[in-house]
User: Fold Adenine phosphoribosyltransferase from Deinococcus radiopugnans ATCC 19172.
Amino acid sequence: MTQANPEVTVKIGGVTRTLPSARAGSMGRVPLVEFIGDSEFTRAVAREMLVMIPEGTEVLLTVVTNALPLAHELSHVSGLPYECVRKKRRPYMQDPIIQDAPSMTLGVAETFWLDSPHAARLKGKQVAIVQDVISSGGTAQTLARIVERSGGTVSGYLAAFRQGESALSLPFKYLEKLPAHI
Assistant:
């Protein structure tokens, strides 16, 4: 008998979480990682990811929403500043960098926005891209393009989890591998 809503259990930094599954387009059900509202798990994951930050990294970069608490905590434990790319234009943005982001995983194209004052903080810096889950690599590739357009250099790609096999050959580091679908 197949479980209606299968789950996956992970243990990182002494903290165990049972991840529910969610339907993700044509991929079927995938494990759902939630950092929002789970500070204990977020702290444990950030502490474990600390050693993955490449030497010489000066800034962390993430994208809203779920990876934001993780990047914030990783910033806290590493002492590195972080910047956050938006998925929606905000009225206060001044001459933002706009980058289309094809979602190879969910099949929905998005547009990413980085306000110019935030982009200026990446200029001339070594930037590590931080994600909650990396699957196709499309989001990481889009964030790398934003770093380059801002005048920075990508120092590395970090994720708490890797899901499935990436079609892209990005050299990312991750803590644990999740099944592509369950």
